[in-house]
Amino acid sequence: MKIALLPRALSRRAIAIALVLVAGASLVTGREKPAGAPSASRPAPSGAPAAAPDIDLAKLERRDNDVPQGDPFAQRNFAAVKQAAAPRTPASPEAPKGPPPLPFTYAGWMTQDGNTEIFIARGDELISIAVGQKIDAQYRVDSITDERIAFTYLPTKKRQSIERAETSG
């Protein structure tokens, strides 16, 4: 008994398809380049050895001025060198800064309806003051007496005062 696995027409088609696939694979396999092969765009040298890159070996040699000067392990003296030619002035320790001079001058006073106002001047500006008042967040009026007006310079907490003397004339 004969058992046919595939009909005859179908087997011819399968063989034809297999041949086409094998032929296509052989074409693709033939076009691959080995990893170390030179490419076709660059011509291979013909019999001549490969040209060495241009390296100037003289630049790699050590020059005499590159040699360390002196002995790095010799004893050193790090004491300050005295200069006799140029006398140095001793640096005075910087005194703590005090408050700047008061920018105010006494301008006068005025009594109206039983209230007395004291005036000070800063440049062309006339300022009415009272005890405890802050002026420009830098000065505070501490006290007002018949003889003087006391201020505190707020950044350094130093007290200053101006004379409250009336000018006659």
List keywords for this structure.
alpha+beta, three-stranded antiparallel sheet, four-stranded antiparallel sheet, 169 residues, 14% helix, 1 helix
Could you explain how this protein is built, in words?
- The structure is a single chain.
- The chain is α+β, with helices and mostly antiparallel strands.
- It contains one helix and seven strands, in the order αβββββββ.
- The strands form two sheets. It has a four-stranded antiparallel beta sheet, with no helix packed on it. The protein has a three-stranded antiparallel beta sheet with strand order 1-2-3, with no helix packed on it.
- The longest helix has 24 residues, at 8-31.
- The chain is elongated.
Which shape, going by the Cα principal axes?
A: elongated
The order of strands across the largest sheet is 4-5-6-7
Calculate the mean pLDDT score and round it: 78
- Which stretches of 5+ consecutive residues score pLDDT under 50? none
- Radius of gyration (CA) equals 52 Å
Count up the helices. 1
What structural class do the secondary elements suggest? alpha+beta
What is the beta-strand fraction?
Answer: 15-25%
Name the helix and strand elements from N-terminus to C-terminus, one letter apiece.
HEEEEEEE
Largest sheet: 4 strands, antiparallel
The oligomeric status of these chains comes to single chain
Number of strands: 7
Secondary structure: helix percent: 10-25%
Distance between the termini: 154 Å
